[in-house]
Structure formats: structure tokens, C-alpha cells
Amino acid sequence: MKNSRRSFLQTAAAAAGVTLIPTDTYSTLVNATPRALRDDRMKFTFRPYTIELKHPFTISVLSRTTTPVMLTEVEYSGIVGYGEASMPPYLGESHETATAFLSKVDLSKYENPFELETILSDIDALAPGNPAAKASVDIALHDLIGKILNKPWYDIWGFDKKKAPNTTFTIGIDKPDVVRQKVKEAVGFKILKVKLGRDNDKEMIETIRSLTDVPLTVDPNQGWKDKNYALDMAHWLKDRNVKYIEQPLPKEMVDDIAWLTERSPLPILADEGFQRLSDLRKIPGTYNGIVVKLMKSTGLREAHTMVMLARALDLKIMLGCMVETSCAVTAASHLSPMVNWADLDGNLLITNDVFDGMKVIDGKVTIPDRPGIGVIKL
Ligand code: MG
Q: Domain end: 123, 150, 177, which one?
């Protein structure tokens, strides 16, 4: 069985487009067990977890202090891949919906994790929606495959980790004294993201500008309702060294967004207005770019395709995250060398992380040099 397992891994690695170099992990796996491969099936498990925020997080539509997540594991041949679903309540998923969805996931029927396209297509077809729950399976499978190959995903994809961008740190909507405190906590970040969209937009920016000159980005989360106000704000923000605007108007106002994009001195990016890969066809002519998040894209498989296709279409790309543990944030970080901007700070906003993973060093996304997605369970 040893030889058939080795040839299976070599075939699988070739299919994944990588050169398989016999490393310690690989040799250990090949020699680990005399069990026939057919009896060695993937085991999928999940558990609900609630992450606690350091500060109440306020955006244009709500304020909250916790976020429900699901932590997933796929075990195969003694190797464990980790995944996560982060489910901010306003997006509609919850511990209950994710439990119902993930209970339907049966990975034991597949030969091995390298059947990734088949497995993830099947999982996508189990039920509509549920993008975060789907991402939690996708991320765990990617972690597992990378660990079997003994390579980090940025390396499997052929990306140069030195090209990872700076990450923004997010300042939620608040009173000036709280905003000042948050800006002080963000020391070391080379770019800040400011939530706008209530009635104090200019006060938020002026408060931050009284303390720092670092470039800013803004995210009204669909909170502006008028295209003329949005255009005036775009000019006002450009004069204050703001780099781009995420989702200024409600996603349904497609004609107004296209009008704004044509005139705006700042790039206009689709976040709420862009979810899955199939939405990409609607972006050119309406927005200048997209916000990619694993919890919208159903994980790394679609997010990778989104990034490559958006680059081919000359669209700007911002790689974002939810409030989540270092598991999902670190998974996303492997795509960061290929994007214009990153907002990978979700793990920094919480008090009870359960993984060690990507770090922000000198303001820059720093991808760990570990196989798979590169997280260690704490
Ligand atoms: Mg956004």
C-alpha cells in the first residue's frame, strides 16, 4: 500500500500544480500507517464558538460586542486542517444555520482531500446561501492539503509573500473622545480604515486628522443615500488623503453608483454589492473594484479565482475580513500579495483568539511560513 499511497500523492500534487518534494511531513505521511487508503477517510467536525470584541464595534447599520463563529476541522491520515466561519448577525448566518448546514457535510464519501473541486462544488450545491459555513469547509480542506504537501498556500499559488500590502486598522463610528483613543491604539499602522455613514462623517475624519497624517480609507456601509452628497464627500475626502471608498450607496442603487464611479476622484469599491464570483460580471462600469472576503466567496477557492479575474479586468482589489479569529484571517492573508489593499485586522479586534497566525509587522501583512494556511491552535 505504501507505493500506491506515494503514487496517489504524486498524482494529486501534480493535479494541484505543485512539485512534490519529499519532506519530513510527506515522508512521515507516506510511511505513517499501513492502512489501505480506501479505509482512510476524511473526518469533518465543527463546534460553535463566540468571539468577544475589545470595543463595541459600530458601523452604519448596527453596534455589537460579540460575533458567533464556527470552528471546523478535517482530519485525514493523522493530519488536521483547520477552518472557520465568521457570522456577523446582519449577514443572516448564525450558530443555528451553520449547524444545520454543516450537519449535511459528509467528507467520508470522498477518496481524498485533493478532490477539492468536486468536494467544494458538491458542498456549494447542498443548499443556497450559507457562504460562511461553506468557507469553513473550504478553509479546513486547503489547510489540510497544504499540510500534506508541506507548503504554505502563497507558495503553492506561486505568490511572493514580500509583496503583501500594509493592512488597514478599522476605526468604528464613535464619539470624538473614543475615536481619539482608538487612533492612539492604532499606532504602527500605516493606513487606517474609517467607518462612516451616520450623521458625523466629517467629525470622524477631522478628529482622526487632528492626530495623524497616515492615509485613510472609508467605508459608509451603504449609509449614504444621495449620489450628490456622495460625490461631494469623495472630493472632500480626497483632499484629506483618503485612498478609496467602500460601498458608499445602497447596493440596489446601481445607476447612481455608476454615476458616482464615473465622476468620483476616488476609486469606488463594491463590498455589499459583490458577493460571489458570478457577481464579477456586474462590476465593470458600475464600480472601480471589489472587496473580496472569504466569508462572502465561500472560501479560498473562489476568492483566488476572483482575485485573478479581477486583475485581468483591471479592477482594484481590496482583501477584507470579518471580525474573526486568526484562522480565517490567516487563510485570507495568503492571497494578499496579489491585491491593491488589505483590511486584515479582524483578529486584532478580539480578546479570545484561539489560533496563532498572520502578524502585522511594521503595518504590513506578514504571512506565516508554515504549511497549509499556517495557523497553530492555541
Ligand atoms: Mg465594507
A: 150
